[in-house]
């Protein structure tokens, strides 16, 4: 079974998690296709330092796969939801599809639905534990997180600010974060809010004067280190982002409060699918201006 990887670390985790669970249920060896990153200057393979149970497709198998898969995609031969020449493309975002009896060899999609992999969560938590990747510069921050009533706050801006993405994704406002922080303050004692973002200067401008906010804008961290630090927090306020969703999912504890934006996409129909697929157990808060 071959899974095509794409997107950032969060998306790759969803793709791997589905492949890991389905290949195990099928009794098949799992391979991952990283060829697409050679053609995407904005993204890179991000699972290399995790002890995942999959091999990168290489050699003759990889050459055969590239010719078959990418050739057929170029010719629009493979259609979503239809197995063709051993290829299966996800039928729709945030849906769950029964894949165990699917005879395809190659799978492409986002696979963002917890039903694919919930039964192997313990295995995923062990394989996607980034503690060994934590650099020396992050260890003191990690220790502070463990010693306080820590709340991971993830703010995603960056590519969400482009015109095209603004027509697709909802942008959580300052009001969303303040409402979420207020809820945490009401329901915990002495919380400390640790901010993680691709725009730390914006976070500093908006929240530096808020009580008990830690904004480490001068600390350089990899995405894997960011994910592990967020995962280590006791509570989570996430953005509409697969990256912070994984931090909350892997870091959920019995006493955890986990808050997510009620609106992830501009299109309301998709928002309902998101809630059903991955937001069970989260407290949802509106994020409109």
In short:
With 289 residues, the chain is of the alpha/beta class. The chain contains ten helices and eleven strands.
Summarize the SSE layout with pairings.
Blueprint lengths: L1 E3 L4 H18 L4 E3 L21 E2 L2 H16 L12 E3 L16 E3 L12 H7 L8 H12 L1 E7 L7 H4 L7 H14 L3 E7 L2 H8 L5 E2 L8 H10 L2 E3 L4 H10 L6 E4 L6 H11 L4 E3 L4
Parallel strand pairs: 1-2, 1-5, 2-3, 4-5, 6-7, 6-9, 7-8, 9-10, 10-11
Helix pairs in contact: 1-9, 8-9
Please provide a written account of the structure.
There is one protein chain. This protein is α/β, with parallel strands linked by helices. It is 38% helix and 14% strand. Helix 9 links the parallel strand 9 and strand 10.
Largest sheet: 6 strands, parallel
Q: Which range does the strand content fall in?
A: 5-15%
Radius of gyration based on Cα positions: 19 Å
Task: State the secondary-structure class.
Answer: alpha/beta
Mean pLDDT: 89
Which stretches are low in confidence, meaning pLDDT under 50 for 5 or more residues running?
A: none
Oligomer: single chain
Instruction: Find the count of extended strands (DSSP E, 2+ residues).
Output: 11
Global shape: globular
State the end-to-end CA separation.
44 Å
Helices and strands, in order, run as EHEEHEEHHEHHEHEHEHEHE
**How do the strands line up in the largest sheet?**
8-7-6-9-10-11
The helix fraction, in percent, is 25-40%
Number of helices: 10
Keywords:
289 residues, alpha/beta, six-stranded parallel beta sheet, five-stranded parallel beta sheet, 10 helices, 11 strands
């Amino acid at each position: 079974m071959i899974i095509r990887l794409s997107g950032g670390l969060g998306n790759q985790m969803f793709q791997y998690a589905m492949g890991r669970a389905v290949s195990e249920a099928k009794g098949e060896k799992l391979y991952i296709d990283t060829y697409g990153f050679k053609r995407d200057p904005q993204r890179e393979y991000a699972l290399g330092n995790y002890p995942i149970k999959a091999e990168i497709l290489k050699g003759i198998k990889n050459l055969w796969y590239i010719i078959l898969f990418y050739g057929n995609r170029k010719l629009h031969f493979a259609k979503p939801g239809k197995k063709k020449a051993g290829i299966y493309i996800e039928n729709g975002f945030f849906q769950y599809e029964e894949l165990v009896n699917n005879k395809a060899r190659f799978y492409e999609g986002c696979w963002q639905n917890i039903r694919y992999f919930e039964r192997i969560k313990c295995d995923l938590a062990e394989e996607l534990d980034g503690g060994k990747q934590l650099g020396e510069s992050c260890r003191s921050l990690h220790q502070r997180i463990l010693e306080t009533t820590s709340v991971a706050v993830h703010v995603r801006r960056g590519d969400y600010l482009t015109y095209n993405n603004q027509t697709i994704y909802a942008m959580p406002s300052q009001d969303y974060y303040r409402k979420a922080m207020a809820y945490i303050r009401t329901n915990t004692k002495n919380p400390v809010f640790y901010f993680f973002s691709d725009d730390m200067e914006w976070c500093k401008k908006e929240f530096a004067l808020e009580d008990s906010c830690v904004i480490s804008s001068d600390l350089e961290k990899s995405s894997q280190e960011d994910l592990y630090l967020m995962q280590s927090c006791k509570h989570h306020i996430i953005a509409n982002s697969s990256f912070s969703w994984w931090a909350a999912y892997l870091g959920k504890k019995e006493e955890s409060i986990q808050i997510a934006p009620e609106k992830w996409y501009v299109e309301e129909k998709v928002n309902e699918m998101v809630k059903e697929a991955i937001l069970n157990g989260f407290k949802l808060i509106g994020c409109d201006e």
